[in-house]
Task: structure prediction
Amino acid sequence: MKIAFFTLGCKVNQYETQAMSELVAKNGYEVVEHSEKADIYVINSCTVTAESDKKTRQAVRRFKRNNPESVVILTGCMPQAYPEAAESLKEADIIIGNKNDCNILDVIDDYFLTGQRIFKVTQHQKGDNFIVSPISKFNERTRAFVKIQDGCNRFCSYCIIPTSRGRVRSKPIEEIKLELESLAENGYKEIVLVGINLSSYGQDFDNGLNICDAVECACSIEKIERVRLGSLEPDHITKEVIESWAKQEKLCPQFHISLQSGCDETLKRMNRHYNTEEYRQLCKNLRENFKDCSLTTDVMVGFSGETDEEFEKSLDFVKEIGFEKVHIFPYSVRVGTRAEHFENQVEKCVKEKRASIMQQECAKIRADFLKRQIGKEVEVLLETRSTDGKFEGYTPNYTPVLIENCNGECGNIVKAKIIDISGDACIGEKTN
Ligand code: SF4
Result:
């Protein structure tokens, strides 16, 4: 039987799709692209914004409309956070939450046995364990995302993730080691450690292990040459953590640390657990400990009650830090969060105006960053080859580089000299 996966959302979701696809392949299913004809389509959904919910609904309806005979399975964060809304999507034949992903084989068997629609969403419980479902490859990619942490205990006032993902749970370190060794055997030179609140790794353990131990474990795997960290929350990243990371040569000097706002009053209403001075110090520490370090972040504009003054403060702070890249999100009200009931919601047009102002300023900083790379000798992990024969890859600090006349292969790390800029990437000349 042919099965296809369609994934929305974050790196953790992409990892979970890979794990599900390896599970079904091991049990005799043929995994095909979602553009191909399949007997079963699995939509692994995201619910972080209203837009992600809309894309999820559209995907369920589209796959059923285009393949009325096929079985459509809806899973992921949307049904987990909003089971009623998911249940009302009649085009879905099977609905399971992200907690039930590991039971995908059973629910498919049940469906074909009974022909009955299945709705199985089990709520996350305090004390749940991390469900280990390892991967051994990462489809069509030269870099593998490896989920080592799930859930979040933070409850930022705008965020539905603690509902969709439950409390902090961490993968045992010996399981991380086994998984990375098998990925290394399969030729992966770079892995990205990912989680929902990655920096809280180990919080649920009583053995004192934390994110430093997970990084050390990953860097100890011989054939792995680069270890990258997925999105991080600022709290838990202490001076000691940074100093421990700085000892790991394989750790890439690129840190995506979610800021959300550069204004302390807004951070308070968001229930974020740091202020701008603490965030400023964190950036300073990272830049002091990591040569050629690049800092990227997420910033929300138009959060409930955000005044023009508060927005200006946030913009000034973002410019002061000088992030190499900023993902900007107009605030999206999520049902079931505290902020849903906050007064002074900001108008859509104001959010869009602020997002565009922030975008323009951040684009200038990014262009300067790319210009500063010219003349540098760098190492590039070749990832993709475009039709005109150019290779594209990334340096350790995540600078995108296009390399012409290179006889390398995807997955190889080559040396190059940055000679120019092209759009949002650098042009490199191979030197070895
Ligand atoms: S730290 Fe805050 S924003 Fe991040 S997942 Fe947890 S609740 Fe959501």
